Amino acid sequence: MTLAHIERQAAVGPGCPPAPNGPPPLAVRPRLLLLVAGWSIYLLGGPGFVTSGGSALGLLGFALWAAAVSRPGPRAKLVEYLTASVFLGLQLTWIGYVFWPTLPYVFLGAGAYGLLGGVLLRKLHRLMPLGLAAGLGWIGAETLRAVVPPPFGMGWLRAGHYFHTLPDWLGSARVFGVVGLGFCGVAAAGALAELWLARRGVMQPRWGRKGPALALLPLVLAPLVARLVPAPRTEAGPRVLLVQPGFEQKRKQAAVNSNELFEEQVRLTAEALADLDPQPELVCWGETMLGVWLVDPDLRRLVAEAAAAGNDTPLEVAPWHGLGEEPLWRWLELFDRIGDDRVEFGLYGRTLSDRTAFLSGAERFVAHEGKLRRQNAIALWNPGGKLAGVSVKQHLAPGGETMLGAERFQLVRDVIYDLAGYVPDFLAGERTSVLPLDTAEGDRWRIAASACFDNAFVDVYLDPVAREPVDFHVIVSNEAWFQRSQEYDQMIAFSRCAAVMSGRTLVRATNGGVSAAYDPSGAELARLVVDGEDRMVRGALLVEVPVPAAGEGVPPIANHFRALRLGACLLAFLLAGIGAFAKRYSAGDKG
């Protein structure tokens, strides 16, 4: 009996007879140990756990994952599901700060996609080396999770984001995006697993030595791809002042209808501007920090026409809006007057010069399908205080901005109102708008404006640059919900990747998160740090924003990211189906 044979039998464990063909079964205990170790490495390597930036070394956890899920065994799927539920769910524990009853669902849902990745790997492994099967299987499941809308999916932290601190590899995202980066990392980890299992005599590499080599090749070539497709050249753009008041979430919600927070932000803005000469071209506040309700022009016109015809309530108004029995047109007039007063007299009459534009998050009322609805908007006022345009948040945070229809039930409304102080029934925007910033010097800068949860979705940043000229992105965010959790650092990973993939500078203006800016190469231009702290702090940050040089285009990924992620999913599932078919009809594999 050889040493390899003894190791092989020990790995199988009691009650697991060796398979007649293919890798031997793996007992429950060693499977559990491998998966707990692998998922722990992956979790702790993520942004915000051991270090704020995380490490791509966390992807080595997929080597242990691949070594475990590539082998059959008793209760394999149960163990894989439970371990994935725990560790992938731990990446998302910040959701509990928004609405804790959703956490069990988050953990269970995360486990389903983790299990799917293993199922795909096993079927793909019948056709290809373990490294390629691991990369394609995991990316297929992960990408599906990212494109399926809540409550059945969620686009959040993915394997490719682990490269956000490695510019030599991150630059390749200009060609194959976060999807491709994730494949590089997981496939390389799978190749290491295949070499390890072969060394132990558990399985022989498919395609011999070529298999692991092919799986490692994309990771090796990624820096070359980054050099062949460099970031767009830039030139000097506008000077942007980011104002971060650092309000705690409870205080922000409690004071939403008062002038208290507005006045504090005005004073903070004035303090920052007093030290600047010349004045910046743009001042940015965070998500919904203006503290007023904007009124959509179409809504204003519809209500005015109805009022002229004697109809004071032309739309269904939900009781939780708190508008009472007053005619709707009176409320809209009041909202317009408050908003105009805050911008014209509260800001431009006291703090901002007529050479500075202003951008802030604010709620907006619109008419939609016969109902009065709210949106999470980003508005830009050009120098002097004239409204230049409005963009609307596309992706709503489950529990924080939408209950996915559950708000129709009184019990749900009562529970969420007691926890959050409002009913989350916002209406998502159809696309990210590009807002024109016209300076006093006659320059025009085009800003793609987004908000908070949008940060995790690449379509928000790639669609605008593929559709029309964009000079830079501005994200207005709140993030005071999350109390210094890993969510802050995960958002930074998303921001770096979005800047690289879109080829445009990305600026983050937050209430209590990390206010910072990243250029098209992913390099950090500036970050607000006060007394050594970079989150939940009070202060302001001036950023000189690089914009694309004349004639510069957009990275290739901007025009084909949808085709790439669709292709990744289809290829994974198609080849997995072929693998399942091959097993069924192969005389040499009857297990």
How would you characterize this protein structure?
The model is unreliable at 1-15 (pLDDT under 50). The protein has 18 helices and 13 strands. The protein has 591 residues and is α/β, with parallel strands linked by helices. The strands form 2 sheets. Strands 1, 2, 3, 4, 5, 6 and 13 form a 7-stranded mixed beta sheet that branches. Strands 7-8-9-10-11-12 form a 6-stranded mixed beta sheet, covered by helices on one side. Helices cover 45% and strands 15% of the residues. The chain folds into 2 domains: 3-230 and 559-585, no CATH class; 238-394 and 429-531 and 539-544, Nitrilase/N-carbamoyl-D-aminoacid amidohydrolase. Strand 8 (444-451), helix 16 and strand 9 (472-477) form a beta-alpha-beta unit.
| Model regions low in confidence, pLDDT < 50 over at least 5 residues | 1-15
User: Based on CA inertia axes, which overall geometry fits?
Assistant: globular
Number of helices: 18
Radius of gyration: 26 Å
Terminus-to-terminus distance: 25 Å
Main sheet makeup:
7 strands, mixed
CATH superfamily name of the largest domain?
A: Carbon-nitrogen hydrolase
Q: What is the count of β-strands?
A: 13
Structural class: alpha/beta
Number of domains: 2
Question: Which range does the strand content fall in?
Answer: 15-25%
CATH class of the largest domain: Alpha Beta
CATH-defined architecture of the largest domain: 4-Layer Sandwich
